[in-house]
């Protein structure tokens, strides 16, 4: 028996690395000699860099602009000529000073600076995981950091933030970093969001309120994104994923020649998941909440799909469980172990997630020994 532990984070509680470590501790209390491989995973959102580092990538840090321009220390991961970037490291909600939402002023310059740092480190394939964005600027800040210019009717550069885009007159891509402009760098947009850029299903309308945008702000942001699309091209605005991360998906698709792929699919590829499966007899995956959203491109569903191709059984661990038996089976999961089965109080469950996961590991080991 060789277990492959491939959990995602338990959001607000434990990182994916911590989840795997606690599970291993519990498993080995019952079966000390059990063969276990820990390969924490991510789907492009929070924890993506940590998952890459756990898989053997080198962690790099650099100072970049936060969502409001203040300096923040952000990390990315490099192995060979591949870099993994987590947008939230530079431009995420958690980087807002004091946690105060700024839907019109927040920008993505720091994300572009992370991409440039990865190129300087020798990357020729950049995986850009998006999620948790604080901004709705269509990726304008990201592109500006890479050499693009966003100008008003007087030829003056626009201030950062999605609110300024209503004054946009033209975009000058002449100064774009040549490593991106000449097509010599592969940029992969790792996202499961399929929203277009504009309209009622677009970046501003669907995700703007999560970033503090009221109805008037949403209308202003959508109008600004429409001006951006008028300058960079409407074709990319209608592509699935253009609305990801406040329109960063659009900026990457329209100006950087990015290719959008499922976040968990591309991360499993980058992390070497297929080769790890060759040694496994059982796969354990999981996330904080196993529910209907899990079925739509979340990490456990992607892990189960990859394992299914190898005819490997998969079980899941989670904080809370809200799937029917049929949904569980359809996702390719044999069984789910939920922390709330041990501690029903949600607050205590999150606070004590580590010890509870070790108890789950013990239960899983006993089930394995019992066949």
CATH topology of the largest domain: Glycerate kinase, domain 2
* Span between termini: 11 Å
Determine Rg (CA atoms, Å). Answer: 21 Å
Low-confidence segments: none
According to CATH, what is the class of the largest domain?
Answer: Alpha Beta
Largest sheet, in brief, is:
6 strands, mixed
Q: Main sheet: which strands, in order across? A: 3-4-5-6-9-10
**From the structure provided, what is the oligomeric state, counting identical versus distinct chains?**
single chain
How much of the polypeptide forms β-strand, as a percent range?
Answer: 15-25%
Q: How are the secondary structure elements laid out?
A:
Elements (H helix, E strand, L loop, with lengths): L1 E6 L8 H15 L4 E4 L9 H7 L3 E8 L5 E9 L2 E5 H5 L17 H12 L4 E5 L10 H6 L3 E3 L18 E3 L5 H4 L4 E5 L12 H5 L7 H18 L1 H4 L10 H8 L3 E3 L1 H9 L1 H5 L4 E9 L8 H10 L5 E8 L3 H6 L4 E4 L7 H6 L1 H17 L2
Parallel strand pairs: 1-2, 1-11, 5-6, 6-9, 9-10, 11-12, 12-13
Antiparallel strand pairs: 3-4, 4-5, 7-8
Helix pairs in contact: 1-16
Observed structural traits:
16 helices; elongated; alpha/beta; 5-stranded parallel β-sheet; 19% strand; Glycerate kinase, domain 2; Rossmann fold; 13 strands
């Amino acid at each position: 028996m060789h277990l492959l532990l491939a959990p995602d984070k338990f959001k607000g509680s434990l990182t994916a690395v911590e989840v795997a470590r606690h599970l291993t501790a519990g498993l080995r209390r019952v079966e000390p000699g059990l063969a276990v491989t820990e390969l924490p995973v991510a789907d492009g959102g929070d924890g993506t860099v940590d998952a890459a580092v756990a898989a053997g990538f080198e962690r790099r840090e650099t100072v970049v602009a936060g969502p409001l321009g203040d300096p923040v220390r952000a990390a990315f991961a490099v192995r060979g000529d591949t870099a993994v970037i987590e947008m939230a490291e530079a431009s995420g909600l958690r980087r807002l000073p004091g946690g105060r939402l700024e839907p019109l002023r927040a920008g993505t310059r720091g994300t572009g600076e992370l991409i440039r740092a990865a190129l300087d480190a020798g990357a020729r394939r950049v995986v850009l995981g998006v999620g948790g964005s604080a901004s709705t600027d269509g990726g304008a800040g990201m592109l500006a950091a890479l050499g693009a210019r966003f100008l008003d009717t007087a030829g003056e550069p626009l201030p950062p933030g999605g609110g300024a885009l209503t004054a946009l007159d033209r975009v000058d891509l002449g100064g774009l970093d040549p490593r991106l402009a000449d097509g010599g760098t592969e940029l992969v947009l790792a996202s499961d969001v399929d929203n277009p850029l504009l309209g009622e299903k677009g970046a501003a309308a669907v995700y703007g309120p999560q970033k503090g945008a009221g109805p008037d702000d949403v209308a202003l942001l959508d109008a600004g994104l429409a001006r951006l699309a008028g300058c960079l091209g409407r074709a990319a605005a209608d592509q699935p994923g253009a609305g990801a991360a406040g329109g960063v998906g659009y900026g990457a698709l329209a100006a950087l020649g990015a290719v959008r792929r499922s976040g968990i699919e591309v991360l499993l590829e980058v992390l070497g998941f297929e080769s790890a499966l060759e040694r496994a007899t059982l796969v354990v995956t999981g996330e904080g909440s196993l529910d209907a959203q899990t079925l739509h491109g979340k990490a456990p569903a992607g892990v189960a799909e990859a394992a299914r191709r190898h005819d490997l059984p998969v079980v899941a661990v989670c904080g809370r469980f809200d799937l029917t038996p049929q949904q569980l089976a359809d996702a390719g999961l044999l069984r789910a172990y939920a922390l709330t089965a041990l501690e029903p109080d949600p607050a205590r469950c999150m606070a004590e997630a580590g010890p509870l996961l070790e108890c789950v590991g013990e239960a899983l080991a006993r089930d394995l020994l019992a066949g």
